[in-house]
């Protein structure tokens, strides 16, 4: 745990600069120590950090996959296959149906990513050995084959330890944050017991989960205000690093390995549960009850003593919770009940049927529905029936795909509003801010305090809002 | 259609009806539990206004017809033969009284259902229905359909949750796969407050009209000013 502040220092540098070599990290950390801006200052009494300790911290971060080696700057690509018909036919229709051809851009990106073991390895600077070897590769899982590949790479692309550049691995952060969001969501829906079980299952399957999300990867939210993302990651990484996971980064993979659904047996879940502080006193009976809770709705699927987490379901429920809470607060309880009905049914329903099922007065229901529709929270269709008298019915539906996008847009809009308002508030007090601190007394002192509180409120809201934005954008 | 109907009882006051009253009565009675709006009647039978009004009053005085509230249009005078009860389309259904949702009664039924679910821990529709019957709180027993409607609304409100029995633990007495209801526990009815709604823009009805430099703008927004009122 002593290394945690150092990890934060290192990551802060990587987030601020994008990419750094070991040497640059070492210099940066020490200049921060000298300027008193380092997280380690308090613990180490401004003593300069040694290269060894920076290396050690880097290895910790790389082993936990929070940091990775940057992709090769100029990847070597195999020439595109000749477009002759015969060979395409030979490959067979089956492969063609399943795999969409990759674009050249995708191929380049893929080729640039080093193999797993290299991606998560650290080239350390050591004193020359007797046989003159200076560099050493440190990684927990390098096989002989990979070592050979590394040696080949080393000779051309990466050069010496000084030229190897590292960067924060956003994929891993997003994966961990997704896990955290899942556990939080389950805790809010069910209880602490269910959250502890889910968290243990995630710990046990972490290494087997290879994708952040099937269709998305990388820090896509970065397209929205880099500053915001940086602040957000900054808070998150402090939260994550304090977690004792750095102490046990390589948990064994249990059960069969699939990209997203890893199955675990009851006993392996139990083993993991009791490793945790929160689950230490959990009985097998309690675990069984929590698993039953988790299967209704099925966020954990279980059959024949084999349980797997359904991430999509958890995220979908978390989306629904967030949107429902907007409907409740913005449009009231009747709207909330109507919205929940339509979202649960997932089909078009007629005004009167909706009023009956939700106990909303028949006169009020159309008004509520209209308001939700006007603000793009509902989809509406008109149905004209030409019987003895022509009758018109209105049918309503929650269209999740479009609504989720709409809510995300509103969240981005809200984040922008927060930042604009913060700038306005600071601007209003710019004269006050020019005064030296000791002159801000009396009423000026109060104004100064108010501004500070406004900034704290806006900043913390931005961080929380970014959590929700990630939920809709990245997870 | 009115011709096919059975004539009223020999001794009924309908015997002593004038021709106009007869026509009007037949028309209203022909509409059964749907009844008819005075305006539609006038159009259909085409009587002079004064005769029409007189006949209508007379039929009411003889208790052959009654005025009912039509949920679709409460302002209109709507009539129905005395022996019919307004259909669901006209009255609004079992939960409506005089065209208004009977909120007090609904709330009592809701509270009773929740009380029994909490007591039983996990309850089926039948279990709740039996418990309500035995409690004797209601003068008339509620139908299963009525109870189910209330339970569904409670689920939508987040006060209770609907689950399928897995046959073990709390579900030990319920057949596997049967739908049950369970109380939500501590946080009844209060969904998790999302991050978005904890800032003014999340609950703002004007968000669609709000622009950085518009009339509605975060720079001048009153919701924010209130929010900063520490
Ligand atoms: S800034 Fe004010 S007006 Fe604009 S969306 Fe937010 S709360 Fe509404």
UniProtKB/TrEMBL annotation, chain A:
What are the entry keywords? DNA-directed RNA polymerase, Nucleus, Transcription
Q: Where is the composition biased (Basic and acidic residues)?
A: 97-106
Pro residues: bias regions: 72-83
Q: Say where the protein is mainly found.
A: nucleus
The RNA polymerase III Rpc82 C -terminal domain sits at 56-316
**Gene3D superfamilies the UniProt entry points to:** Winged helix-like DNA-binding domain superfamily/Winged helix DNA-binding domain
Cellular location of this protein? Answer: Nucleus
Domain named DNA-directed RNA polymerase III subunit RPC3 winged-helix is located at 323-385
Where are the annotated segments for Disordered? 72-106
- Do the record's keywords include Transcription? yes
Keyword Transcription attributed: yes
Biased composition, class Polar residues, residue ranges:
85-96
Subunit-structure text? Component of the RNA polymerase III (Pol III) complex consisting of 17 subunits.
What functional role does this protein have?
DNA-dependent RNA polymerase catalyzes the transcription of DNA into RNA using the four ribonucleoside triphosphates as substrates. Specific core component of RNA polymerase III which synthesizes small RNAs, such as 5S rRNA and tRNAs.
Q: Which family does it belong to?
A: Belongs to the eukaryotic RPC3/POLR3C RNA polymerase subunit family.
Q: Which PANTHER family match?
A: DNA-DIRECTED RNA POLYMERASE III SUBUNIT RPC3, RNA POLYMERASE III DNA DIRECTED -RELATED
Protein name, please?
A: DNA-directed RNA polymerase III subunit RPC3
Record organism? Xanthoceras sorbifolium
TrEMBL record, chain B:
**UniProt source species:** Xanthoceras sorbifolium
Query: Keywords assigned by UniProt?
Result: DNA-directed RNA polymerase, Nucleus, Transcription
Name the source's superkingdom. Eukaryota
Q: Protein name, please? A: DNA-directed RNA polymerase III subunit RPC6
| Localization, UniProt | Nucleus
**The keyword Nucleus is annotated on this UniProt entry:** yes
Cite the Pfam families for this sequence. RNA_pol_Rpc34
Is Transcription one of the keywords UniProt gives this record? yes
InterPro entries from the xrefs? RNA_pol_Rpc34, RNA_pol_Rpc34-like, WH-like_DNA-bd_sf, WH_DNA-bd_sf
Q: State the similarity comment.
A: Belongs to the eukaryotic RPC34/RPC39 RNA polymerase subunit family.
